[in-house]
Write a structure and sequence with these properties.
2 copies of one chain form a homodimer. Helix content of chain A is 69%, strand content 0%. Chain A is built from 8 helices and no strands. The longest helix of chain A has 15 residues. The radius of gyration of chain A is 17 Å and the shape is elongated. Chain A binds a DNA duplex (30 and 30 nucleotides) through α3.
DNA sequence: ACTTTTGTATACTGTTTAGTAAACTGTATA
DNA sequence: TATACAGTTTACTAAACAGTATACAAAAGT
């Protein structure tokens, strides 16, 4: 499992704690409805929270849920559902862009967005 | 869990069995290195195989691994890794194309492929 | 008829996931 | 100095996952 998830969460929390005392480990645990002991283990990289708790945690820490999930090695159920609805097409798309540079991905996103956006 | 995965696997296997007797449930189980009892439960939708076994099964049944994984509600580790490397970009891309028609996806794939392919 | 082969049912197993509960340790502070 | 709060440690747990092992009944060969 991913050790960096915990480190990242802790550093982010400590950052916020400097501005407001609502970001003690215990307060964050309370917001997530988990025990402080569990939150402590999370920050030490001993366990990972479930997907819903990671998403709530992202809300609390003002982080992008996709990023936090990615640090935990996960992809949200939302994205998984979109992919599994058309596995061949999305499989091809993602493999093709998997090694492309960021700017190419950005270009494709912009191009794809022209219609609906 | 997904009931249709089993149905699909069974129908595909029975199809192949009409041409070759290498596709009895027991032979397929042998190829996957699982017990026939387990394979039987798979075909009845009582359990799902692990990702590696689903991929092997796709090989045996001459199916697209992504499709078989999708029927099991899963996305391959390979694709997950590509996504989690750049979660924001892929998140945006997939959400944007999640409801687009197939032809739009195909267009984008072709466009994206121009460089490296 | 019998004996292989096929699929199935049942019960059990080890491992992982996602946590809880309680007690402990250090720190701040009034 | 006691009491409040912070983070941590340890031990435990319920449910899900990914199967195995054994035995059995029906069907197909020979």
């Amino acid at each position: 499992m991913d050790l960096n998830f915990g480190k990242y969460v802790k550093s982010k929390r400590l950052e916020l704690l400097r501005h407001s005392s609502k970001y003690t480990l215990r307060q964050v645990a309370l917001a997530l409805k988990v025990q402080p002991s569990f939150m402590s283990k999370v920050e030490h990289g001993l366990v990972l929270p479930s997907e819903p708790k990671i998403i709530r945690l992202a809300g609390v820490l003002q982080e992008d849920p996709d990023v936090l999930l990615a640090l935990a090695g996960k992809v949200s159920r939302e994205l998984r559902d979109l992919i599994t609805r058309r596995p061949r097409l999305f499989g091809r798309l993602i493999r093709r862009l998997g090694n492309a540079p960021d700017r190419e991905l950005l270009r494709v996103i912009a191009d794809a967005g022209e219609k609906q956006a």
